[in-house]
């Protein structure tokens, strides 16, 4: 039997009746083909932790075409977005990558992940391979405080030295990979610099997959589960039932209703300036009837004096809050607030 024939026909017609008059039926689920046993864990290097920061805690920029020394751009910085060289190769995955200067000797960025199932994996990295130059960096994976994978990338060229893009720009985005045996559970992927190299280290993204026959190509993404599901549906076009009943019911069962506080619905505390209480001495037609906070205040008073319909402030859910520093004035004998 082919995997596609194994359909999870999860038609779910559970009916929940928590009390008479509150019965509802969850929407029936559409058939979904079982996932192949492949995982594609794709991470962007530029989203990892540990990227150098400026004094304002912004990520430090280290565009590779500027060839900055490590003294000016220490550790791992943000490369981009890359310009002509990157764009003429289809661009960086998710618009950016990281870079560490050629003379940098220290730097670590990392990503904490969850390995969904144990087994044999391949760890792929997309990075700038400079022709006839080294761009050494290490990728390490730790699980349960133990190193389970370590591989040096960039020690030798992956690309053909006669690659046209390499001959034009001096480098090409390349994928290189190494096998890893991982256990199910948390893991930390680190990309590390341990020594200087002949060229800038520019890393775009990392792919950890147990699909050992898969070879990444450019920044094209593998068959992520969500995209696979949408693609299958776009072919089958199985009619979907709406997720809500038509016409929609607005009576929620008791379990879905907000718990009451002291027998009342929620309230919206609203800071009310003391000027509102000062207006209490005037006849109702000449002052706003509800506590309010609005600027400019005199325009609000002009527009809403004596009015019963007032935006926001005629709501029974709005409760006035007063500024504690105003209390001595508000609580004075004979004050409008105390009337
Ligand atoms: Ca190289
Ligand atoms: Ca990227």
Strand content: 25-35%
CATH class of the largest domain reads Mainly Beta
CATH superfamily of the largest domain: Galactose-binding domain-like
**If you average the pLDDT, what whole number results?**
88
> CATH topology of the largest domain, what is it called?
Jelly Rolls
Please indicate the count of domains.
Answer: 2
Radius of gyration: 32 Å
Give the count of helical stretches.
Answer: 6
Distance between the termini: 83 Å
CATH architecture of the largest domain: Sandwich
Shape designation = elongated
Q: Number of DSSP strands?
A: 16
Give a list of the ligands. calcium ion
Largest sheet geometry:
6 strands, antiparallel
Q: What is the helix/strand order?
A: EEEEEEHEEEEEHEEEHEHHEH
Q: Which spans of ≥5 residues are poorly predicted at pLDDT below 50?
A: 1-28
Helix content class:
10-25%
The computed structural class is alpha+beta
Write structural notes for this entry.
The protein has two domains: 40-215, Sandwich (Jelly Rolls); 258-330, no CATH class. The protein has helices at residues 84-87, 164-169, 225-236, 274-278, 297-304, 327-330; strands spanning 7-8, 16-17, 23-24, 32-33, 40-44, 77-78, 98-100, 107-115, 119-130, 137-143, 146-153, 171-182, 185-193, 201-209, 268-271, 318-321. The protein is an alpha+beta fold and 339 residues long. The protein is built from six helices and 16 strands. The strands form five sheets. Strands 5, 6, 7, 9, 12 and 14 form a six-stranded antiparallel sheet that branches. Strands 8-13-10-11 form a four-stranded antiparallel sheet, with no helix packed on it. Strands 1-4 form a two-stranded antiparallel ribbon. It starts with 6 loop residues before the first strand and ends in a 9-residue tail after the last helix. The model is unreliable at 1-28 (pLDDT under 50). The site of one calcium ion has 7 residues, from strand 9.
């Amino acid at each position: 039997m082919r995997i596609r024939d194994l359909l999870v026909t999860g038609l779910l017609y559970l009916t929940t009746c928590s009390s008479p008059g509150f019965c509802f039926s969850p929407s029936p689920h559409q058939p979904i083909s079982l996932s192949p046993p492949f995982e594609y864990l794709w991470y962007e290097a530029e989203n990892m932790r540990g990227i150098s920061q400026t004094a304002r805690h912004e990520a430090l920029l280290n565009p590779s075409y500027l060839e900055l020394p490590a003294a000016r751009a220490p550790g791992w910085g943000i490369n981009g977005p890359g310009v002509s060289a990157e764009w003429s190769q289809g661009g960086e995955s998710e618009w950016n990558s990281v870079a560490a200067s050629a003379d940098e000797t220290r730097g670590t960025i990392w990503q904490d992940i969850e390995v969904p199932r144990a087994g044999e994996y391949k760890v792929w990295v997309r990075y700038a391979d400079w022709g006839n130059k080294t761009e050494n960096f290490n990728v390490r994976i730790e699980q349960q405080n133990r190193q389970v994978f370590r591989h040096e990338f960039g020690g030798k060229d992956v690309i053909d030295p006669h690659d046209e893009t390499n001959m034009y720009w001096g480098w090409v985005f390349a994928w290189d990979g190494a096998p890893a045996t991982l256990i199910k559970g948390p893991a930390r992927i680190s990309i590390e610099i341990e020594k200087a190299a002949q060229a800038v280290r520019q890393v775009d993204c990392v792919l950890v997959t147990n699909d050992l026959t898969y070879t990444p190509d450019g920044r094209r993404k593998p068959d992520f589960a969500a995209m696979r599901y949408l693609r299958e549906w776009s072919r089958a076009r199985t009619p979907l039932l709406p997720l809500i009943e038509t016409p929609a019911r607005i009576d929620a069962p008791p379990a879905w209703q907000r718990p009451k506080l002291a027998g009342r619905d929620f309230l919206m505390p609203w800071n009310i300036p003391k000027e509102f209480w000062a207006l209490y001495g005037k006849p109702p037609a000449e002052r706003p009837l509800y506590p309010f906070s609005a600027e400019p205040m005199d325009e609000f008073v002009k527009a809403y004096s004596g009015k019963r319909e007032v935006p926001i402030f005629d709501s029974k859910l709005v409760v006035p809050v007063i500024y504690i520093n105003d209390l001595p004035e508000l609580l004075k004998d004979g004050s409008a607030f105390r009337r």
